[in-house]
Amino acid sequence: MPELAEVEYYRKRWDCGLGVPIEDVRVRPEARIYRGASPHVLARQLTGDRLKQSLRHGKQMLFRTAGGGWLGIHLGMSGELVLASAGEPPGRHDHLVLQAGRHRLIFRDPRMFGRVRWHAGPDTPPWWSQLPPEVLEDAFTAARLRAALRRHARAPLKAVLLRQEHFPGIGNWMADEILWRAALHPALPAGRVSDEETGRLWKTIRTVARDALRVIGTDWGTPPDSWLFNHRWTDGGRCPKTGAPLQRAAIGGRTTCWSPARQTLPGAARVRKRPASAGKQGAG
DNA sequence: TACAATGTTTTAAG
DNA sequence: CCTTAAAACATTGT
After folding, report:
1. Contact at 8 Å (CB) between A33 and A116?
2. Is the CB of A74 less than 7 A from some atom of nucleic acid strand B?
3. Residues A105 and A83 sit within 8 Å (Cβ to Cβ)
4. Cα separation, A227 vs A54, whole angstroms
5. pLDDT in tens, A88-126
6. What does the pLDDT read at residue A4?
7. Are A98 and A22 within 8 A, CB to CB?
8. Straight-line distance from CA A176 to C1' B6, in Å?
9. CA of A47 to C1' of C14 (A)
10. What is the C-alpha end-to-end distance of chain A, expressed in Å?
């Protein structure tokens, strides 16, 4: 569920716990989200410490503790940060629970595609400092976008936009919103985007990121109907710009929504229909 | 019931 | 080595 703006929203949910001593830490050590890291070390070191700062970069979150620790959280597909009061019993999918004063800071993730990591030391963990520039930073230049498009020249534009090593924070709905606003077909091979279109795409990436943070990242507000957002999941949805019916298909492995009236594929490139169960060719 | 879900990672193939 | 596509991951809701 969470992309750039949703992660930003969740990050702030724990704000009321900043500065409050953590009396107790509960973990579900068998949960997949710890991925080889030791949840017990995390629990021991976090106990008695306090969170003093929260950061977000793309879809990654990082909580800095007063005692020199770093708690990294990725929400995966179904994760969320929840605030509960001290008395409530833990939910079935609450994999990390920090008891801080009257607050209970909870990482909840039913599908467990998320991730929790722990790092102790004065500097940010290596995996954090190596993240690519955010799409709203100055370092995210049109030249960087052009290089990413060149590198994945044969992949559909939609699939390229989802790559976190180039566009941290962009997810399925943002990618569709960006391509729709920029009037670029999601199946267009990235290498065929013209210079003029690249400039347009670069501006649109930044506009959508800003809009998303403003509308969703602050209080999870509902975007206006002028966005594709409100129309993309409903059957029979119509393009807010043209009124024409929207289309949906799997592109780049994800359900994709676009407006055929404004996002067209030039010439040879066509949307390839998924092979209708062609039967498995036995490997021999 | 079977399928899809706002995400990554692994595996396979070219 | 590189890129691309598909499967896998685990659970819930329609």
Report:
1. yes
2. yes
3. yes
4. 30
5. 888 999 999 999 999 999 999 999 999 999 999 999 999
6. 98
7. yes
8. 11
9. 41
10. 40
- What's the pTM value of the predicted model, to 2 decimals? 0.93
Nucleotide nearest to A162 (CA to C1'): B7
Where does A8-157 show beta strands of DSSP type E?
22-27, 51-57, 60-65, 69-74, 80-85, 94-100, 103-108, 115-120
Closest by Cα among A260, A223, A256 to A245: A260
A26-80, pLDDT tens digit by residue?
A: 999 999 999 988 999 999 999 999 999 999 999 999 999 999 999 999 999 999 9
DSSP string for residues in A213-265: HHHHHHH-PPPPTTSSTTTSSSTT-B-TTT-PBPEEEEETTEEEEE-TTT---
pLDDT digits (tens, 9 = 90+) for A127-150: 999 999 999 999 999 999 999 999
Per-residue pLDDT at A250 exceeds 60: yes
Phi then psi for residue A178, to 5 deg, are: -65, -50
